């Protein structure tokens, strides 16, 4: 045996460890992959060994290999094994590996639940810490649901190290299990004021993260955060809070007003740049939210802009970048204050740092006006020429287009200039935005009618020089512009100077190398051009020309008929046949031009990209209803919307011209392009070998384009668009001069119709566009719905966290709590999987029955409610049993939050109003409050009762009755709700539900609710109920949890709990207190509220039950007086309370019974009328036993006392008789326990 | 939220990767490559912020990085983090590494990836900043290391015992080398870093049974 251990250890010594692996990899640079594969083989061998150290070492190496990109998911189970090692060293390795490679799809994760739970409750804080860290990386919805309560308990751990980790991980839990947010929130809020700065910062972190996504739910925390902001000195916390305020101010302008002053102070006082920057940012957000009406409003703006200018001028590139970033935020609302810094921003365009240039570009977008657009774009075009690297150039290109096209071309005064800019942009090498340029060309040509003549001429030129653009045929390459060019030339061919020439250009054999969709457009538009040409030629005397044209098409089109692209092929063969037919007619001297052009007659209207989506559903039409009974699943779904579209918009459906498709296509493409244009992220493209496009021929007068010149006419040293800048300058000067003359007559010159000119700066109004342009707005269907909600992402995980936190917590919302299971699995390996899935159907079937039972259970319900208020034990909790199914019915701490009214009541909202309205804080009735009864009844803001907002108004003096009734109503509602939402199945609706979760009892009846809390004492002011439990960690301690409930409508305070010690049991008092001093209850009770306190007793002998006398003294404070009151009680320590639910395997159990050290005793119960599993559940629950094995109507059970006595029961039932045979190593203890069991069953 | 933390050297070799959102291994490598590509072509005197990691996140995400000697420390964060704050955090992290490793260099990270992870776990947890106070971080790391050591003190004497057993066993030719590598494997503080002893891993036929 010993040798075996030695051998295992030696094996371990000779395994490679991580360092060896790394070294090996470094030594095998040339055949790394091979080396690693042999290493993986070794690791696989190591993982097969029993020695945990060897396994841990192997897993550690796998973590390294994972970093290098090797998939190690095959070792997931071994990782779990290492995680469950009892040694911290190995555990840490296991959790690290798990956090690196586990994810929601890892199936072994569900095996880890119990292990993690065990680690979370480990006495060693680093075990807990390591588990929390690991869990934060791979938490799944199942884990989150099962562990939420454990983690919440850890939020109040004694060690700040654990607290801060537990607080942080709650965010992940919320994301995965949104139902936990409401029950956990009050505690999270508490942590904002934790004494440890680390915990505080963690809580701020989590709440900021939550609030960022759903700010409106967190407005009520503003006063608290404000306090933190003014008191905290931790810059990290301050930054987070200030950022949070930035998210909150848009919702509450009054908050902004309150913030300005402290923020300004911070800006002036802080030396930390990061803090200063965030302050400026938030001030900007505040200023944005306050539209106007602030006296020192402009002063703040000035301060911000001035500080930002300092940042931008700083030599530190980081500050420069951030300055620009913040500046762009100001720009949105206060463009004027930024525009004065145009020089600075243009200067940044020359910066060597790309990030900064991009930021500056963003700023330029907002700085353009009609006046400076041309100038700015000219500058940008210069940058385009200079730019190295396609990413930045592409960015410039999109920015130029964005700048020009923003707000429906608001700032463009001369569209000819814009078209020439677009044409110039086509010279860009290797750009990926051919698409974008093309869509702009199409958009402008379609929507600005006046420009069509010019556009067509330019496009014809592009087509003619197509060979310069075809070098780059990759997707989105520049050749995309040919698509637009061909379409524009075809569609608006009446503007063409020389259509014949263009037609020839479009039918060149080289076209066949273009991408398919472009060829298709070529073919289609060649047909349009053909129609135009025919018309011209037929009018002319020389009719031979028309026939020659037909012949040209007949010669060239077969090339396209052979195309591999279906679309091209189909169109080409169609048109080829058409032309052949036309040729036949021509030969018979039939005039065909009219008919041919009729094929393409009609104007195309631009349609908004969202138009189809916005078509309203006509009244009475149910799109989801079947028109006929569904014959099979093959029914195509997109037919129906189409039909609607046709009905609604008859003008868009024409007789089946090929154009209809074409138009649709173009429209869809355009929509796609626009979507892409909105995406600021582009993947770099590789530079291509395309030739530079020669300078476009300059033109003095529009639209003179001399296509037939073999050498392009060139204005030396000046690209074409510059000409327009010059021209425009001249024009404006002339206009200004003219205007001066006309001013006396007060006659306004022509202005562009259809423009949203009024939104531009005032000073620009006198700049008139060069042409009378008509920007046709995109068509929308009639009655289009104005809703713009189609931008939301339905998959956003934060959507689920949009939860109203101010509503009082409902019973159903409490976190699932582990309770015992009456049945036991034999081997630990079987545990853990499939549980939730099995629990669900059970729950469903139990619900109906439950409702029927409800009336009968009234008295039970009472106890159930009490139970809900029971608090989770923190310091005195027994150590976690190994197996889940036998755990004690520990109650959620969340339940206590119901009792102790937290933060969340209607008054909270009014508190906010009050806080914001700047009134003195002593007077808690704010002017704005709505007349909710709560606010009037509540004496202090903290003392609101927990009724929901919508209670009947007569309920002022809260009575306990009413509350209970309401609770019941709530429960009813909840139950109904649950029927619909089955996923609630884990919510504790009482212990009974929970205790049948184990799948094996599925068909049996649900358990009635149970509670261990029994009445301790009661008078007209206060009611005390208590539960007594042993403390596993210390064999001589018993913990008494007492719930104090204030039944009166007065405030109870200064409560003192005192017990007369006996020889055997003593109340543990703090050091220094005398043996007869009372313990102060650490809270006060507002009316109607209950809260729980725990008291620890030390006990010497546990074999006998005993009673202790005690008193509770307290002060009753009503509005006019306060009295001292006293309540006596008797604390009954039963032997049961010394027992602790402890799991035991059947083999161990058998051994124990065989050992013969145990004394036997037995008990017979008559007339027990309940199902066997109820009986077992009761024994388990009330007497802290666990089921070892159950066979039909016979079960063996086990429990252990805090001092280590074993108690074994064999329970048999036949009819109404139950016989219990028991064995224990302490006969008197056994006798007492049996007596108590008997009492339990005689009571029911 | 921090979405990912990447440390790689001037050649793009990853030294530590920590994703707080799941990506498959090949995607992780692609992200590292892309990030390296973006970061490496930037001068040292340009700003430390980068937009355009198209693989992680989207427009909301930024790369914030620092370049120390041969290593790049890259944090991919969303807009809820303060840019300058994260830069400070990187500094804190590196200084912590420096304290824990005593003059940290790339080799420390290469050979002790696990330890770097443990340190990082005390700084950032699940994508959120856990602790920014360096002394606190170092204290926690050291306490945990001490715990680890206390668990393995027994083993310090083990190599000598092994040597003894090996000799007994008669595997005479192999024994010394194995014992040496056994000694080497112990985390003794004096282990010389940086020394290449890869060759000592002589393949030994399986141990003869006891």
Automatic annotation (TrEMBL), chain A:
Please note every region of biased composition (Basic and acidic residues). 639-675, 725-740, 794-824, 854-866, 946-958
**Top-level taxon of the source organism:** Eukaryota
Localized where? Cytoplasm; Golgi apparatus membrane
Coiled-coil spans are none
According to the record, the residues making up region (Disordered) are: 621-695, 714-1007
The record's principal subcellular location, in a coarse class, is cytoplasm
Keywords (alphabetical) are: Acetylation, Coiled coil, Cytoplasm, Golgi apparatus, Membrane, Phosphoprotein, Protein transport, Repeat, Transport
Ranges of compositional bias, category Low complexity: 928-942
Q: Where is the AP-3 complex subunit delta domain?
A: 660-806
Entry membrane topology? Peripheral membrane protein
Xref: InterPro entries = AP3_complex_dsu, AP3D_dom_metazoa, ARM-like, ARM-type_fold, Clathrin/coatomer_adapt-like_N, Mu_AP3
Q: Where is the composition biased (Acidic residues)?
A: 776-793, 877-887
What is one Gene Ontology biological process annotated in the Swiss-Prot or TrEMBL record? anterograde synaptic vesicle transport
The GO cellular component terms are: AP-3 adaptor complex; axon cytoplasm; endosome membrane; Golgi membrane; presynaptic endosome; terminal bouton
Q: Where is the composition biased (Basic residues)?
A: 741-754, 844-853, 975-987
| Main function | Part of the AP-3 complex, an adaptor-related complex which is not clathrin-associated. The complex is associated with the Golgi region as well as more peripheral structures. It facilitates the budding of vesicles from the Golgi membrane and may be directly involved in trafficking to lysosomes. Involved in process of CD8+ T-cell and NK cell degranulation. In concert with the BLOC-1 complex, AP-3 is required to target cargos into vesicles assembled at cell bodies for delivery into neurites and nerve terminals.
What family does the entry list? Answer: Belongs to the adaptor complexes large subunit family.
Name of this chain's protein: AP-3 complex subunit delta-1
Gene source species: Chanos chanos
* Taxonomic placement: Eukaryota, Metazoa, Chordata, Craniata, Vertebrata
Automatic annotation (TrEMBL), chain B:
Q: Which UniProt keywords apply?
A: Cytoplasmic vesicle, Golgi apparatus, Membrane, Protein transport, Transmembrane, Transmembrane helix, Transport
Membrane keyword on record:
yes
Q: Where are the transmembrane segments?
A: 154-175
Could you name the domain of life of the organism this protein comes from? Eukaryota
Where is the protein situated, by its record's location annotation? Answer: Cytoplasmic vesicle membrane; Golgi apparatus
User: InterPro entries of this UniProt entry?
Assistant: AP_complex_ssu (IPR016635), AP_mu_sigma_su (IPR022775), APS3 (IPR027155), Clathrin_sm-chain_CS (IPR000804), Longin-like_dom_sf (IPR011012)
According to its UniProt record, which protein family does this protein belong to? Belongs to the adaptor complexes small subunit family.
What this chain does, per the entry, is described as: Part of the AP-3 complex, an adaptor-related complex which is not clathrin-associated. The complex is associated with the Golgi region as well as more peripheral structures. It facilitates the budding of vesicles from the Golgi membrane and may be directly involved in trafficking to lysosomes. In concert with the BLOC-1 complex, AP-3 is required to target cargos into vesicles assembled at cell bodies for delivery into neurites and nerve terminals.
* Protein's name according to its UniProt entry: AP-3 complex subunit sigma-2 isoform X1
The gene is: ap3s2
């Amino acid at each position: 045996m010993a040798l075996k251990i030695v051998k295992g250890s030696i094996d371990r010594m000779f395994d490679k460890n991580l360092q060896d692996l790394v070294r090996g990899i470094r030594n095998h640079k040339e055949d790394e992959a091979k080396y690693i594969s042999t290493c993986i083989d070794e690791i696989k061998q190591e993982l097969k060994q029993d020695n945990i150290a060897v396994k841990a070492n192997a897993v550690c190496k796998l973590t390294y290999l994972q970093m290098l990109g090797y998939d190690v998911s095959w070792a997931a189970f071994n990782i779990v094994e290492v995680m469950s090692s009892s040694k911290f060293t190995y555990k840490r390795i296991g959790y690290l590996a798990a956090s690196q490679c586990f994810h929601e799809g890892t199936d072994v994760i569900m095996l880890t639940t119990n292990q993690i739970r065990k680690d979370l409750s480990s006495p060693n804080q680093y075990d807990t810490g390591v588990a929390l860290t690991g869990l934060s990386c791979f938490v799944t919805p199942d884990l989150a649901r099962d562990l939420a309560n454990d983690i919440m308990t850890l939020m109040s751990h004694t060690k700040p190290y654990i607290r801060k980790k537990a607080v942080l991980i709650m965010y992940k839990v919320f994301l995965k299990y949104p139902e936990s947010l409401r029950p956990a929130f009050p505690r999270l809020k508490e942590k904002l004021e934790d004494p440890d700065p680390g915990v505080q910062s963690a809580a701020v972190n989590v709440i900021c993260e939550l609030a960022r996504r759903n700010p409106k739910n967190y407005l009520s925390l503003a006063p608290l955060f404000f306090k933190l902001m003014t008191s905290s000195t931790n810059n990290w916390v301050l930054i987070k809070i200030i950022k949070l305020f930035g998210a909150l101010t848009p919702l509450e302008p009054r908050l902004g007003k309150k913030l300005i002053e402290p923020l300004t102070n911070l800006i002036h006082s802080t030396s930390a740049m990061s803090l200063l920057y965030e302050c400026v940012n938030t001030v900007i957000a505040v200023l944005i939210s306050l539209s106007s009406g602030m006296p020192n409003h402009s002063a703040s703006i000035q301060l911000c802009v001035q500080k930002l200018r300092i940042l931008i001028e700083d030599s530190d590139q980081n500050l420069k970048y951030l300055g620009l970033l913040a500046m762009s935020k100001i720009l949105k609302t206060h463009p004027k204050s930024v525009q004065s810094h145009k020089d600075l921003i243009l200067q940044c365009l020359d910066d060597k740092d790309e990030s900064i240039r991009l930021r500056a570009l963003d700023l330029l977008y907002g700085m353009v006006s009609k006046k400076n657009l041309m100038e700015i774009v000219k500058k940008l075009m210069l940058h385009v020429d200079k730019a190295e690297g396609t990413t930045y150039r592409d960015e410039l290109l999109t920015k130029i287009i964005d700048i020009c096209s923003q707000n429906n071309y608001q700032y463009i005064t001369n569209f000819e200039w814009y078209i020439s800019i677009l044409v110039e942009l086509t010279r860009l090498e290797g750009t990926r935005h051919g698409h974008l340029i093309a869509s702009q060309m199409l958009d402008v040509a379609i929507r600005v009618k006046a420009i069509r003549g010019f556009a067509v001429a330019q496009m014809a030129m592009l087509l003619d020089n197509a060979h310069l653009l075809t070098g780059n045929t990759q997707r989105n390459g520049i050749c995309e512009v040919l698509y637009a060019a061909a379409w524009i030339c075809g569609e608006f061919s009446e503007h063409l100077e020389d259509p014949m020439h263009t037609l020839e250009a479009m039918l060149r054999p080289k076209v066949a190398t273009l991408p398919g969709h472009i060829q298709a457009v070529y073919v289609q538009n060649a047909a349009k051009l053909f129609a135009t040409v025919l018309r011209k030629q037929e009018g002319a005397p020389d009719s031979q020309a028309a026939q020659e044209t037909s012949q040209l098409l007949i010669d060239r089109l077969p090339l396209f008929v052979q195309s591999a692209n279906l679309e091209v092929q189909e169109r080409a063969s169609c048109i080829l046949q058409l032309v052949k037919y036309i040729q036949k007619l021509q030969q018979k001297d039939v005039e065909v031009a009219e008919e041919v052009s009729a094929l393409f007659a009609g104007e195309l209207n631009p349609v908004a990209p969202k138009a189809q989506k916005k078509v309203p559903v006509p009244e009475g039409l149910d799109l989801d209803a079947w028109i006929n009974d569904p014959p099979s699943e093959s029914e195509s779904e997109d037919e129906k919307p189409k039909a609607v579209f046709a009905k609604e918009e008859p003008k868009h459906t024409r007789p089946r011209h090929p154009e209809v498709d074409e138009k649709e296509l173009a429209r869809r493409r355009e929509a796609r392009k626009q979507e892409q244009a909105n995406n600021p992220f582009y993947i770099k493209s590789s530079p291509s070998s395309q030739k530079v496009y020669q300078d476009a021929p300059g033109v003095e007068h529009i639209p003179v384009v001399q296509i037939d010149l073999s050498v392009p006419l060139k204005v030396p040293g000046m690209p074409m668009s510059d000409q327009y800048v010059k021209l425009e300058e001249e024009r404006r000067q002339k206009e200004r001069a003219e205007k001066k003359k006309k001013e006396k007559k007060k006659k306004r010159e022509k202005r562009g119709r259809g423009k949203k000119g009024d939104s531009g700066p005032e000073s620009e109004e006198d700049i008139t566009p060069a042409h009378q342009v008509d920007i046709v707005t995109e068509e929308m269907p009639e009655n289009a719905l104005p809703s713009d909600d189609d931008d939301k992402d339905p998959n956003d995980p934060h959507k689920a966290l949009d939860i109203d936190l101010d509503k009082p917590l409902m019973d159903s919302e409490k976190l699932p709590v582990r309770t015992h299971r009456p049945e036991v699995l034999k081997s630990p390996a079987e545990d853990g999987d499939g549980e939730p899935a099995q629990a669900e159907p059970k729950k469903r079937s139990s619900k109906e029955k439950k409702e029927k039972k409800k009336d009968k259970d009234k008295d039970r319900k009472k106890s159930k409610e009490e139970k809900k208020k029971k608090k989770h034990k923190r310091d005195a909790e027994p150590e976690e049993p190994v197996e889940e199914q036998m755990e004690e019915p520990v109650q959620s701490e969340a339940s206590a939050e119901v009792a102790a009214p937290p933060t969340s009541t209607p008054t909270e909202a009014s508190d906010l109003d009050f806080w914001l309205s700047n009134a003195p804080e002593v007077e808690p009735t704010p002017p704005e409050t709505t007349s909710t009864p709560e606010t009037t009844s509540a004496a202090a803001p903290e003392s609101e009762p927990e009724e929901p907002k919508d209670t009947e108004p007569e309920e002022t003096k809260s009575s306990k009755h009413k509350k209970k009734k309401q609770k019941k109503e709530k429960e009813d509602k909840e139950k109904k709700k649950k029927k619909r939402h089955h996923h609630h199945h884990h919510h504790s609706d009482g212990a009974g539900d929970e205790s049948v979760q184990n799948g094996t009892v599925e068909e049996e009846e649900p358990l009635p609710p149970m509670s261990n809390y029994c009445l301790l004492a009661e008078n007209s002011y206060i009611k005390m109920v208590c539960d007594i439990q042993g403390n596993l960690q210390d064999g001589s301690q018993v913990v008494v949890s007492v719930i104090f409930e204030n039944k009166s409508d007065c405030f109870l305070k200064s409560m003192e709990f005192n017990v007369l010690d006996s020889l055997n049991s003593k109340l543990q008092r703090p050091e220094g207190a005398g043996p007869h001093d009372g313990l102060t209850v650490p809270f006060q009770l507002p009316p109607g509220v209950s809260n729980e306190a725990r008291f620890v007793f030390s006990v010497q002998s546990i074999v006998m039950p005993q009673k202790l006398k005690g008193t509770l003294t307290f002060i009753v404070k009503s509005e006019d007086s306060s009295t001292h009151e006293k309540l006596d009680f008797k604390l009954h320590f039963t032997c049961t309370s010394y027992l602790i639910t402890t799991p035991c395997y059947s083999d161990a159990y058998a051994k124990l019974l065989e050992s013969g050290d145990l004394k036997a005793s037995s008990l017979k119960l008559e007339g027990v009328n309940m199902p066997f599993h109820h009986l077992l559940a009761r024994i388990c629950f009330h007497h802290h036993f666990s089921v070892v094995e159950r066979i039909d109507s016979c079960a063996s059970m086990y429990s252990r006392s805090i001092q280590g006595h074993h108690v074994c029961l064999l329970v048999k039932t036949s009819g109404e008789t139950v016989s219990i045979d028991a064995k224990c190593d302490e006969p008197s203890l056994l006798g007492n326990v049996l007596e108590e069991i008997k009492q339990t069953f005689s009571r029911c | 939220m921090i979405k990912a933390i990447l440390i790689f050297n001037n050649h793009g070799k990853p030294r530590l990767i920590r994703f707080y959102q799941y990506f498959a291994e090949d995607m992780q490598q692609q992200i590292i490559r892309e990030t390296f590509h973006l970061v490496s072509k930037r001068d040292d005197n340009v700003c430390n912020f980068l937009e355009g990691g198209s693989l992680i996140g989207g427009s909301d995400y930024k790369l914030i990085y620092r370049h120390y000697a041969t290593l790049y420390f890259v944090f991919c964060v969303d807009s809820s983090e303060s840019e300058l704050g994260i830069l400070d955090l990187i500094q804190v992290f590196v200084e912590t590494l420096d304290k824990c490793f005593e003059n940290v260099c790339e080799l420390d990270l290469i050979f002790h990836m696990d330890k770097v992870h443990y340190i990082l776990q005390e700084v950032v947890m699940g994508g959120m900043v856990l602790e920014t106070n360096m002394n606190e971080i170092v204290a926690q790391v050291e306490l945990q290391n001490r715990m680890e050591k206390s668990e393995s003190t027994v083993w310090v004497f083990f190599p000598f015992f092994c040597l003894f057993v090996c000799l007994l066993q008669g595997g005479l030719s192999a024994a010394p080398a194995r014992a040496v590598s056994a000694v080497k494997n112990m985390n003794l503080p004096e282990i010389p870093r940086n020394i290449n002893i890869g060759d000592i891993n002589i393949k030994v036929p399986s141990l003869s049974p006891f």
